[in-house]
Amino acid sequence: MVDFGQYGPEKYTVCARKCPKCGKLFYPEPMVCRECGTRRDPSGLKFSEWEKVPIGGRCRLLTWTRLFNLPSDFADRFLLFGIVEFDDGLRASGRLVAAQPAEGMLLTARTDVVRGSGEDSQCGLVFEEMAPTAVQLKAKALPPREVGETSGRI
Ligand SMILES: [Zn+2]
Q1: pLDDT over threshold 80, residue 96
Q2: Closest CA to 103 of 46, 55, 64
Q3: Which of 6, 21, 28, 82 is deepest in the core (most CB within 10 A)?
Q4: What's the pTM?
Q5: Ligand 1 centre and the CA of 5: distance in Å?
């Protein structure tokens, strides 16, 4: 069950739930842990509530698709939708932002507005291509110098 209460305007974070007994992460969370059978109680009265763990960071694209025929409040002709796997094995789905999506590519996940604006906005997971590392940026910004090149002043 998805906890829509976590999408409040002040807390833009999509969270997984951690089983208190075996530590396995789930998203969306089940009522019973598939690993060890520990039960989850959203009220926290009979069984302990499971810890929320924000979803984000490095992940790898498992599969993706283009969604056409979007509702009228979308300005785009289509959007990309992907399923990713994080380093800890957690899998999640969400909006994909990539110029040339490819299975296995490295992405970074964050929570952002995926529909609407203002108070009507809805948040969800967004997966983006990983920003180039500092070394890659430096290599792009500084092309190899040619022999005999000067600093510009003769
Ligand atoms: Zn468990």
Answers
A1: yes
A2: 64
A3: 82
A4: 0.71
A5: 24
